[in-house]
Amino acid sequence: MTLLYLKTGVLSLCLLLAAAPALARPVSYPGGWTFMTMNDGDTNMMHLNYTFTPQLAIGYTAEYWREEKYQLHALQMNNLLKRWNNPDSQANFYLQSGLGAAYSDKSPHDSDWQPAAFTGIAVDWEDRRFFTSYQNRVTWAGDIDKGFMQQARVGIAPYIGGYGDLHTWIMLQVSHTPKAENSVTFSPILRLFKGDHLAEAGISNHGDVTLNWTVRF
Amino acid sequence: MKKIILSALCAIAFSFTLATAAEAHHTDGAPAKMQAGHINPTGTLVEIGVNGLVCDFCVRALEKVFMKRGEIAGMDVNLDDKRILVSFHNDADINDEALRKLVTDAGYSVTTITRKPGHA
What we know:
Chain A is mainly beta. Chain A has one helix at 2-18; strands spanning 33-39, 43-53, 56-65, 70-85, 90-104, 112-126, 130-141, 145-156, 167-176, 184-194, 197-203, 209-216. A twelve-stranded antiparallel beta barrel of chain A has the order 1-2-3-4-5-6-7-8-9-10-11-12.
């Protein structure tokens, strides 16, 4: 029985970490605000940031992990470490880090606050037809939660729209959480992009729905 | 696996519907571009080649950064040609170095700057 609880606990923890959010363009232009919300089978997350320089955005992140019943609140810093601007494509290398606290509603940490932090890198390359990205994240939330995940995406635009058109991307997301029983998750994702708004919908091979939305202002 | 295949097929079918709609939207075949403000027919016009323009977020960033400057009457950003046309008010101008910095501040890099003083 103890072994069963242990396996269930490890699996739950890994599923939680596998749902760590994939932020779309986490640094904007100086003076710009970005709001993102990401929702999937395990978590609801929102992130609001303000871009101070072309390389730095700082904001607030809130996450709720439904199965484990804990919240994570953090001051998040997004650093654009390097951008490669090419004639027909663009590539980026980001560092994303957060520092804050986690609050648990679940035993044995019921009504307990713990310090929390996370960090990870994100790289992407895209032109107007193809998209690839990779990101990872290490999360530490005291005794409530800790772990590692990584995620990659490939995407293709079935047509190339002009400015102001509705842009469409078909993407495949692969998430890997080394400790999970189902350590690899595949999620086809449809991305719709128009003006300042970017929305994504998908479903994983475990049946979990993904709904994401990003807006800049 | 069946769910993935089914989802992918739905996404492809949906995107081709959108593709058809987008195609119908561009009946004149002209490249879509963003225009902010207005092009001043008697002011200086500067054409800037830009690397890294791949999406609407890029165009909006350039618009937001450039249109904060009072010297600028308006601008066109063409995603297809990767170029910006900046139109100045009469007797107003921004030097090349400052224009480069504006593009860099928006997150992109300059390839060329071509000036057309009093182009009208």
